[in-house]
Design brief:
The protein has twelve helices and twelve strands. It is an alpha/beta fold and 385 residues long. Helix 6 packs parallel to helix 10.
């Protein structure tokens, strides 16, 4: 074929071929510069009216009495931690204290009370001295320290009984700026003897000890009763016996040995307590402290608790527990949730979820940090009045 014929054939193919549609190319999006987290969550304290202009205040130009304070300020503070806990405490609990504090403060210095404490305080000069446990005496008076910026905090493990003020806490109570109790009913007792600021804040549940688990048969029960037995509980037990006629009822507390139809149980360890909570179908509590409610929730247990002012501080009856005020209430709850296990599972699941996202060990440490900063802010403002 000649070159002219090839050119003619090629032009004919182009003419007869279907016309192609032109592809549309989506333009690339321009990547904008990402803001830092501080810029993203930094908002004015109040939104002005439409005819006003935002006037952001510079914290550096404000007087100390006017400056606001946030939990981020904790990252500028150093904490010396003294854990003087009894043998009943598990080592993992102290580990969680250190871990959570490290996430909230600039530096954590862990010491023992006998490890040349005064020399260590003078060397490191922490902003906060935190003593956890029931050994509230220091081997020296606070006024011997070479600097005045130290805030001394005592966080007591006084869930059941307050410390004996005559022997455990000396009259020179000014060594502690802040004393934290785990039982709100102890506040009045401490305030009548101590010059320190007294606040209420319970420990969180240790997630290494209290979590959902399968337990052996001998630790399973239909109902667990929490609290010390007194004559006040007689009408409650009459109701319980009618609702749990052939079930296994365990009781944790004092004076249960002679109560018929109830198996008194002496707990030997925190691990065993977690197994009992996991093995119980329902738990009824007359105890007033918050700590045991946290541990039950962390195990995914179903709790029916006697109404108390501290119950609503962290928990929400109907969502993560059930509350009762009299024997009639308790009997109605037992009958209802025996007949409706799906509702019981919903509340137990809600307790487990909230134990991780509302009142976990870390959330309680955030409350502690906020209390420290709030106390420091009040002191700072009072010095400028």
């Amino acid at each position: 074929m000649k070159k002219s014929e090839k050119a003619t054939s090629s032009s004919q193919k182009k003419a007869t071929a279907a016309s192609r549609t032109k592809r549309t190319v989506t333009p690339k999006l321009k990547i904008t510069k990402r803001n830092t987290s501080s810029e993203v969550i930094s908002f004015p304290h109040a939104f002005p009216a439409s005819d006003q202009v935002l006037n952001h205040r510079n914290e550096q130009t404000l007087s100390p009495s006017e400056r606001s304070i946030t939990i981020r300020d904790a990252k500028q503070k150093r904490v010396m931690l003294l854990c003087e806990m009894d043998k009943a405490w598990e080592p993992s609990t102290e580990v969680h204290f250190r871990h959570c504090l490290r996430m909230l403060f600039k530096e954590i210095i862990t010491m023992k009370i006998d490890d040349n404490l005064l020399e260590s305080l003078s060397l490191y000069q922490p902003d906060v001295l935190l003593m956890i446990g029931n050994k509230p005496t220091l081997p020296f008076p606070k006024d011997v320290l070479p600097w005045k910026g130290l805030k001394a905090v005592l966080w007591l493990n006084d869930v059941h009984e307050p410390l004996s003020l005559s022997t455990d806490i000396p009259c020179e109570s000014s060594m502690w700026d802040l004393v934290i109790t785990q039982n709100s009913e102890h506040i009045a007792t401490y305030q009548s003897h101590l010059s320190s600021q007294i606040i209420y804040l319970p420990f969180g549940a240790d997630p290494d000890l209290f979590s959902p688990a399968t337990v052996p048969l001998h630790l399973q029960s239909d109902l667990i009763l929490l609290g010390d037995y007194t004559d006040r509980l007689v009408p409650y037990l009459d109701i319980i016996r009618t609702q749990i006629q052939h079930g296994r009822i365990l009781a944790l507390g004092e004076n249960w040995d002679e109560v018929p139809g109830v198996e008194a149980w002496q707990q030997t360890s925190e691990h065993e307590l977690a197994q009992l909570f996991n093995g119980a179908d329902m738990i009824v509590s007359w105890r007033k402290d918050q700590c045991h409610r946290f541990t039950i929730a962390a195990c995914g247990g179903f709790l029916i608790a006697e109404e108390h002012m501290d119950l609503h501080r962290y928990m929400s009856p109907g969502d993560d527990c059930i509350s009762f005020q009299n024997p009639g209430d308790l009997g109605a709850h037992l009958a209802h949730y025996k007949a409706h296990p799906e509702e019981k599972r919903r509340i137990a699941s809600g307790a487990l979820t909230r134990s991780m996202y509302n009142y976990s060990f870390f959330h309680l440490m955030m409350d502690f940090t906020n209390d420290i900063l709030t106390s420091a802010l009040e002191e700072r403002r009072s010095s400028f009045v």
